[in-house]
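Appendix B, Record 12. Input sequence as logged:
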Amino acid sequence: MLTHLQLKNFKGWKDTTPIRMAPLTVFFGTNSSGKSSIEQFLLMLKQTVDSSDRKLVIYPGDANTPVNLGSFEEFIYGRDTKNKLEFSFEWELPKPLKVKDPRSKFSCSGNQMRFEAEVATTDEKPSPLVVNRLEYQLKQAGVESMRVWVERKQVERKQGAKVEHKLKADPYGLIRNPWRGWSLGAPTKFYGFPEQIAAYYQNADFVQDFSLQMERLLRSVSYLGPLRSKGERLYNWSGGEPESVGYSGENTVSALLAAKDRQLNAAKNKKKRSFQQLIAEKLQQLELIDEFEVRQISAHRKEYEVKVRTPGSPLFVDLPDVGFGLSQVLPVVVQCFYAPASSILFIEQPELHLHPRAQAHLADLLIDVLASREDGEPRNIQLIIETHSEHFLNRLQRRIAEADAEHPISTEQVAAYFAHTTGSESKLEELEFNTDGDILNWPPNFFGDSMGDLFEKSKAAARRRQQARLAEVGQ
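Logged structural output:
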């Protein structure tokens, strides 16, 4: 689970400043304010990890990836390639990581990790991307246990300037192999240590454990975009298990069928439900259906249909025959409970096409996701949500104030931000909740100027009344 994030010189962000990340992290803001860029950055790192090209420092993407950010010039701040992309983030490890030096008595462990990197272009033509620095810090309860880093430096030699990479660790003592005289190569991608390290040092094998933690973190990320697939009358499923519902929810029904044998609890003291029962229950809580089921057409066909019965109707109908909102929110609900434990879910505008009351209920559903359990263990899901819904926020504030046992949420479990622009630069302001659910630093025109609209409406009504009285006097 991510706990902190900071970006410098990415798209509209000169510097986000440190962002506190919570189990439920919500971004609000005006259009083109930069809130989507934060998700895009982490998705870019994920697709870099997933790429088979080990020579790529960062993979901006293509038509088949969650994001396609073009060239370095297109996503660096101000489109100035002299700027350096700097970023850092911290996360909690699912299990403690132990480091032990085979050549000494040094050992340490940690349950948290921090990563920092600086990526830039060079003066060469063409200008390749290089990693100037990458650093990992292993922490135990917030206190640094050790750190290890690689730096790229230009060194003056008799033969001329030469680029070298140096590996350093503190307080760990690295021991060189005496017969290894060449310098280290460049890091692998933005996060991996040079491949020659195992041959270069006698006791540096542990660095691969650090980069493995990075891969596990970013592979736990999934993304669901704002424009989701419409409902179909028939779905094909050959028995496979999709990684997620897909970027646009195209694998939603396959995920429903693949998870048919899973048993989940909506919260610690809630009764276990089969996966499809739980999804149906959550759709009922959104007041979108009374009943929901996935049926196989016949035993000899790999085709399935989704049947729903809407509130007040005695009949089951196909998914395309009900309101568009149901087909749009179904991938959201399925992904929230389908994702494996310790997943990080990015969801853009989960409230799209839902009426205001359902948008409020959606906040309750996401709170339940945080409390959900499987096989008796917490799922530890982190939700990073981009939304424009005032109704979603109102319900979230209410639940914080109530400290409701039915939908438990605290101020520590929520981080909410308002993104806006100042000139060409994006700015981020954390919303401060008190225990009554009030926002202590409500930004101006957060959800439009509702008070201003009411004031102008009253003024217009007063003008009409005055005009009517003047007309009566004139007669």
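The chain has a mean pLDDT of 92.
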